[in-house]
């Protein structure tokens, strides 16, 4: 069974930074691309970023490009999302998943950006 456990969320002021982590289990992690997706209150699930199985390709939504960085450590079965220059519109529940539409996502970690 595919499982993800996200952590690292919190409350920060605009302009602040957070680093999210996501530990995977139940599948051959190193063979899969992984995505971060998010859902803000009252809004649909939104794709944020993806990384290929070997970290050779990374992609970002326009809304986070230049501010967020995705990375992974296959030995630790962990994906990271470094988030800098956070904005209020980044406030959401963040999940990692096996696809850009949020398949197999975990429980999520809450990020709140507010002054």
Outline the structure in words.
This protein has strands spanning 3-7, 10-12, 18-25, 34-39, 46-51, 58-60, 68-73, 78-83, 92-97, 109-113. With 115 residues, it is an all-beta fold. A hairpin with a 4-residue loop joins strand 7 and strand 8. It is globular. The N and C termini lie far apart (40 Å).
- What is the chain-wise order of helices and strands? EEEEEEEEEE
**Alpha-carbon Rg, integer:** 13 Å
Helix content: under 10%
* Shape assignment: globular
For the secondary structure, the number of strands is 10
Span of the ends, CA to CA: 40 Å
Number of helices: 0
Which whole number gives the mean pLDDT? 97
Coarse structural class: mainly beta
Side-by-side strand order of the widest sheet: 2-10-9-4-5-6
Major sheet: 6 strands, mixed
From the structure provided, what is the oligomeric state, counting identical versus distinct chains? single chain
Low-confidence sequence ranges = none
Beta-strand content estimate:
over 45%
């Amino acid at each position: 069974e595919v499982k993800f456990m996200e952590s690292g969320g919190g409350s920060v002021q605009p302009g602040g930074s957070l680093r999210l982590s996501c530990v995977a289990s139940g599948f051959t992690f190193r063979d899969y691309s992984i995505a971060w997706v998010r859902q803000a209150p009252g809004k649909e699930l939104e794709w944020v970023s993806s990384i290929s199985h070997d970290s050779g390709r990374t992609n970002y939504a326009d809304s986070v490009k230049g501010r967020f960085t995705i990375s992974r450590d296959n030995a630790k079965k962990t994906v990271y999302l470094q988030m800098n220059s956070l904005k209020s519109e980044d406030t959401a529940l963040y999940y990692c998943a096996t696809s850009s539409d949020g398949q197999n996502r975990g429980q999520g970690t809450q990020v709140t950006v507010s002054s």
